[in-house]
């Protein structure tokens, strides 16, 4: 028999003794009345506590738990402890759930839970974005919300043993489609976990890489084919007249020079893309460099174009001499190479505030149509491929300029009108003339190596 039953028996026994004593003193009838009266009171007290318990169980908050008497005090204390531990457990679960939601929101991948019928039970915001869904699409059948037939095929396969991964081009709100890899994993008997990963940047990189390899191969193939043709001719005709032989050798030299220039430009570009310039920076006399470039432009032009220059003296910047030379010389040499005979080229370097300086090269050459301008700094992008190749261009010049200018915290500005000419310019932050250089009196820039 348990403790509660013993307590009840004890209480009833006490009531019986009281009834007996009362009966002995005031007669049997009064004794019975006393016994039944006490029993009723006792039962009423228990019923009242049960009522309290039922009322509390409807809203079981630890703060509103009733205080009982006797056995009920024990009952209410036990319930209180249980309610408190339930509350603690609930808080822990809520916290864990919140952490899970926060973690899933910062995840770079889309995560979605589908039930047995393929209905969305839950998804994070990345999944919503990948599949272009709304919050109220939760509960909908995913296959009805995504149109691509490949996706339907993928979802129709048995997730346990069929194809688990799908590469899919999904439309975006911005217009350009995105490529995602979708993985499906069954869990918890009939549930499925769908993870989507956006691989568009990787795809673009791969495309850029293969385009680059195709471009380099194409650029090398043309001169190599020419050289190969001449070698075969000379092998077939050992008694070729000396003048023809000389002519062939000169053409072969021209094409091998072209390949060497291309390789040099490729190496320069790769160095610029991969190196950290911060430890190579040194004071550079920009005015002296621009003077030197003007002279080299005039030499390259060989009198075919006229030049005007306006170069402010003693402007210094922090930079990498060779890279800056590569950046600016491409602009000067392009102005010469693309301008017609009798054209004019204007080279300027000026400052208004002694804080920044602007370098510009203008020509009155053929100009560039607006649609080409944003693409000029792409590798191997040429407006007029024939003219570029004929003048020894590799198609990498402005790509090199862009990277080298970025290394100097600057960017290329292009303005051009077809039939009127072009202006290529860049701005640089000036520094004051370094002490050591001004004491020695030498403003000459570090010797250039343009090989
Ligand atoms: P390239 O070796 O072909 O000159 P660049 O990257 O230096 O390569 O230039 C890219 C293209 O921009 C050139 O092919 C040419 O069509 C165009 N371009 C560059 N500078 C000028 C200019 N001053 N006038 C007209 N077109 C130019």
Automatic annotation (TrEMBL):
<dbReference type="InterPro" id="IPR014310">
    <property type="entry name" value="Sig_transdc_His_kinase_PhoR"/>
</dbReference>
<dbReference type="InterPro" id="IPR021766">
    <property type="entry name" value="PhoR_N"/>
</dbReference>
<dbReference type="Pfam" id="PF00512">
    <property type="entry name" value="HisKA"/>
</dbReference>
<feature type="domain" description="Histidine kinase">
    <location>
        <begin position="215"/>
        <end position="432"/>
    </location>
</feature>
<keyword id="KW-0812">Transmembrane</keyword>
<keyword id="KW-0067">ATP-binding</keyword>
<dbReference type="InterPro" id="IPR004358">
    <property type="entry name" value="Sig_transdc_His_kin-like_C"/>
</dbReference>
<keyword id="KW-1003">Cell membrane</keyword>
<dbReference type="InterPro" id="IPR036890">
    <property type="entry name" value="HATPase_C_sf"/>
</dbReference>
<keyword id="KW-0902">Two-component regulatory system</keyword>
<dbReference type="InterPro" id="IPR005467">
    <property type="entry name" value="His_kinase_dom"/>
</dbReference>
<keyword id="KW-0813">Transport</keyword>
<keyword id="KW-0597">Phosphoprotein</keyword>
<dbReference type="InterPro" id="IPR036097">
    <property type="entry name" value="HisK_dim/P_sf"/>
</dbReference>
<keyword id="KW-0418">Kinase</keyword>
<dbReference type="GO" id="GO:0016301">
    <property type="term" value="F:kinase activity"/>
</dbReference>
<comment type="function">
    <text>Member of the two-component regulatory system PhoR/PhoB involved in the phosphate regulon genes expression. PhoR may function as a membrane-associated protein kinase that phosphorylates PhoB in response to environmental signals.</text>
</comment>
<dbReference type="Pfam" id="PF02518">
    <property type="entry name" value="HATPase_c"/>
</dbReference>
<dbReference type="InterPro" id="IPR050351">
    <property type="entry name" value="BphY/WalK/GraS-like"/>
</dbReference>
<dbReference type="InterPro" id="IPR003594">
    <property type="entry name" value="HATPase_dom"/>
</dbReference>
<keyword id="KW-0547">Nucleotide-binding</keyword>
<dbReference type="Pfam" id="PF11808">
    <property type="entry name" value="PhoR"/>
</dbReference>
<dbReference type="InterPro" id="IPR000014">
    <property type="entry name" value="PAS"/>
</dbReference>
<dbReference type="InterPro" id="IPR035965">
    <property type="entry name" value="PAS-like_dom_sf"/>
</dbReference>
<keyword id="KW-0592">Phosphate transport</keyword>
<dbReference type="InterPro" id="IPR003661">
    <property type="entry name" value="HisK_dim/P_dom"/>
</dbReference>
<feature type="transmembrane region" description="Helical">
    <location>
        <begin position="12"/>
        <end position="45"/>
    </location>
</feature>
<keyword id="KW-0472">Membrane</keyword>
<protein>
    <recommendedName>
        <fullName>Phosphate regulon sensor protein PhoR</fullName>
        <ecNumber>2.7.13.3</ecNumber>
    </recommendedName>
</protein>
<keyword id="KW-1133">Transmembrane helix</keyword>
<keyword id="KW-0808">Transferase</keyword>
């Amino acid at each position: 028999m348990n403790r509660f039953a013993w307590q009840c028996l004890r209480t009833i026994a006490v009531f019986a003794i009281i009834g007996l004593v009362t009966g002995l003193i005031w007669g049997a009838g009064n004794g019975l009345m006393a016994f039944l009266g006490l029993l009723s009171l006792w039962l009423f007290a228990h019923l009242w506590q049960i009522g309290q318990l039922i009322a509390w169980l409807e809203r079981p908050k630890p703060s509103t738990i009733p205080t009982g008497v006797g056995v009920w005090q024990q009952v209410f204390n036990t319930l209180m402890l249980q309610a408190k531990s339930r509350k603690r457990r609930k808080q822990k679960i809520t916290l864990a759930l919140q952490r899970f939601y926060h973690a899933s929101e910062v995840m770079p991948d889309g995560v979605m839970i589908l039930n047995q019928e393929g209905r969305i039970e839950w998804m994070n915001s990345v999944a919503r974005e990948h599949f272009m869904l709304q919050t109220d699409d939760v509960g909908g059948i995913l296959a009805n919300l995504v149109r691509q037939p490949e996706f339907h095929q993928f979802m129709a396969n048995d997730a346990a043993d069929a194809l688990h991964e799908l590469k899919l081009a999904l439309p975006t709100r911005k217009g350009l489609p995105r490529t995602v890899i979708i993985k499906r994993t069954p869990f918890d008997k009939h549930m499925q976990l769908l993870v989507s990963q956006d691989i568009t940047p990787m795809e673009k990189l791969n495309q850029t890489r293969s385009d680059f390899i195709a471009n380099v191969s194409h650029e090398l193939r043309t001169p190599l084919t020419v050289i190969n043709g001449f070698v075969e001719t000379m092998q077939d005709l050992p008694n070729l007249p000396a003048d023809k032989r000389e002519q062939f050798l000169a053409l072969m030299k021209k094409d091998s020079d072209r390949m060497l220039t291309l390789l040099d430009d490729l190496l320069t570009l790769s160095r610029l893309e991969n190196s950290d310039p911060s430890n190579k920076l040194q004071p550079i006399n920009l005015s002296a460099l621009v003077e030197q470039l003007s002279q080299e432009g005039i030499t390259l032009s060989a009198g075919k174009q006229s030049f005007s220059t306006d170069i402010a003296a003693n402007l210094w910047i922090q930079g990498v001499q060779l890279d800056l030379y590569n950046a600016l010389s491409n602009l000067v040499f392009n102005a010469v190479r693309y301008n017609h005979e009798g054209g004019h080229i204007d080279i300027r370097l000026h400052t208004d505030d002694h804080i920044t300086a602007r370098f510009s090269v203008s020509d009155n050459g053929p100009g560039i149509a607006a649609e080409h301008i944003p693409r000029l700094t792409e590798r191997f992008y040429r407006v007029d491929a024939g003219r570029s190749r004929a003048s020894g261009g590799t198609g990498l010049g402005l790509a090199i300029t862009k990277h080298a200018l970025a290394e100097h915290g600057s960017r290329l500005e292009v303005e051009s009108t077809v039939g009127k000419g072009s202006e290529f310019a860049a701005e640089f932050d000036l520094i004051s003339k370094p002490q050591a250089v001004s004491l020695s009196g030498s403003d000459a820039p570090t010797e250039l190596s343009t090989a």
